[in-house]
Inverse folding.
């Protein structure tokens, strides 16, 4: 991630055990997409993985586990130390 004098320092996030840099103020879904991780859920095993679709909290395709709760990654603003996990097929009832 390149920085200029006006660019705030990146924050460190962890998704599924891997660390990524994110830009302060962006959503988790945006940070993951920029990092090359478009899928946040494996909804229909053995179907394709899913990721953000509507980007406004409606479709639920981007749900991740964060602090023990299911949240939409497109509506979760990153912060330093954020940790989240992908939704697995076993998590969907
Ligand atoms: S992308 Fe639709 S709820 Fe997040």
């Amino acid at each position: 991630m390149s920085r200029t004098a006006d660019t705030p320092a990146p924050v460190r996030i962890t998704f599924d055990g891997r660390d990524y840099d994110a830009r302060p103020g962006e959503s988790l879904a945006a940070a993951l997409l920029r990092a090359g991780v478009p899928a946040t859920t494996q909804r229909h095993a053995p179907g394709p993985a899913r990721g953000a679709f509507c980007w406004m909290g409606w479709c639920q395709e981007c749900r991740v586990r964060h602090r023990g709760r299911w949240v939409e990654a497109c509506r979760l603003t990153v912060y330093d130390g954020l940790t989240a996990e992908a939704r697995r097929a076993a998590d969907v009832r």
